[in-house]
Amino acid sequence: MRRIAILTGGGDCPGLNAVIRAVAKTAQNDHGLEVVGIRDSYWGLLCEDFVVLANRDVSGILNQGGTILGASRVNPFEETHRLGRLASPKEDWGYVKRILKRHRIDALVTVGGDGTQRVAHRASLAGIPIVAIPKTIDNDIRETDVTFGFDSAVSLVMQSLDILHTTAMSHHRAMVVEVMGRSVGWLALYAGVAGGGDVILIPEIPYDLELVHEKVLHRNSTGKRFSIVVVAEGARARGGEATFSGDTDASGRAIFGGVGKRLADRIEESTGIESRVTVLGHLQRGGPPTAYDRLLATRFGHHAVHLLVEREFGRMVALKGAHVKSVPLEKATRKTKPVPPDHPLIQAARSLDTCLGDK
Ligand code: F6P
Predict the structure, then answer these.
(1) Nearest-5° angle of CA 183, CA 189, CA 191?
(2) Is pTM, for the whole model, over 0.90?
(3) What does the pLDDT look like over 90-128, one tens digit per residue?
(4) Average pLDDT value for the chain
(5) For residue 268, how far is its CA from the centre of ligand 1 (angstroms)?
(6) Overall average pLDDT of the 275-300 stretch
(7) At residue 86, does pLDDT exceed 50?
(8) Whose CA is nearest to atom 14 of ligand 1?
């Protein structure tokens, strides 16, 4: 093995540059490998948009958010048809294999969330040497305790809740804060508890609107006179559906959006308490990585290179307790990882008198 390539796919997050840096430096310093960056994930792979990453190219990026390579949600199967490069409707990795051969790339490191890694798994089954690194602020990837990007997003949301407390208190309002996470509630739960949310609503626990109203009214009548309501973008009322914006992203997935505004309106209508909504949006994806995410991303990148050199392909690095290990990519990409109903933090939130919308 002489040359490896790395791509960063899906939604960006803090820590991506830390993992690019760790892969490039480990590959060069420990194994004398050349490292190629693939711009904009699978799109750049199909368009052969590559850049050699020498040590100097990854210097000074550890603390930078985003990804110096660019990211995209492009799925190569759809794109190759749209690009007209593949007559065959069947899944044909021959086109990609010829690109890798032409550029003397012996193996790939795919950094991304569930969408990126599901494509990586299919590429691996087609014989392309791949090691995957789990990344997402949603923390919804199985087989790893946590993904990098999650801690930075939790910190951003927590700080936002701290800030929103002062204005909610000043105006005696119910402040509804809509948080990312797609169909899981890890980010809303962790940040909601860390930020002192009075109500935390996650997709895994469909909420009873009456209970939310009662909680807000109770706080108002017992002197607190404000409430912080944290709602995951994929949360839904009992018997209801999640709220979508009506748009789809580049990979064809429906985009969540609107649950916060609807909830704020319902709370004001039923309780008479002034309510406002804050949608944190892509603030949760930006900014510098926390120390935890820099360290986790660095450990993941370092371990991924050694897996490649050992020819342990088709595997994903994973955090298990205090250790970084690897798991079959197939197991990690079967389905997303919801918050279990008996999660200790859910139990702690209930003990701290937090309303989770179900009792
Ligand atoms: O998967 C990460 C994520 O931030 C989700 O939490 C969010 O719903 C989605 O990406 C937003 O996607 P985009 O950046 O394409 O709008």
Answers:
(1) 115
(2) yes
(3) 456 888 999 999 999 999 999 999 999 999 999 999 999
(4) 95
(5) 28
(6) 98
(7) no
(8) 11
Full set of structural domains in the chain with CATH: 3-148+289-332 (3.40.50.450), 151-285 (3.40.50.460)
Tens digits of residue pLDDT in 12-41 = 999 999 999 999 999 999 999 999 999 999
Closest CA to 18 of 286, 288, 327: 288
- Whether the CB-CB separation of 195 and 161 falls below 8 Å is answered with yes
CA dist 339 and 252 (Å) reads: 25
Determine the distance separating the centroid of ligand 1 and the alpha carbon of 57, expressed in angstroms: 28
Whether 137 lines ligand 1, by a CB cut-off of 6 Å, is yes
Q: How confident is the model at residue 152 (pLDDT cuts 50, 70, 90)?
A: very high
Spacing, Cα 103 to ligand 1 middle (Å): 32
Instruction: Please determine, for residue 88, whether its predicted confidence score (pLDDT) is greater than 50.
Output: no
CA separation, residue 324 to residues 94, 126, 172, 235 (Å)? 33, 26, 46, 32
Q: Is the CB of 181 under 6 A from ligand 1?
A: yes
* Residue of 41, 249, 279 with the most ligand 1 atoms within 8 Å of its CB, for mutation: 249
User: Does the beta carbon of 187 lie inside 6 Å of ligand 1?
Assistant: no
Question: Which of the listed residues 182, 202, 259 should we mutate to test ligand 1's pocket, taking the one with most ligand atoms within 8 A of CB?
Answer: 182
Q: Indicate if the pLDDT at residue 137 is higher than 50.
A: yes
Q: Which residue has the CA at smallest separation from atom 12 of ligand 1?
A: 11
**Cα distance between residue 232 and residue 186, in whole Å:** 9
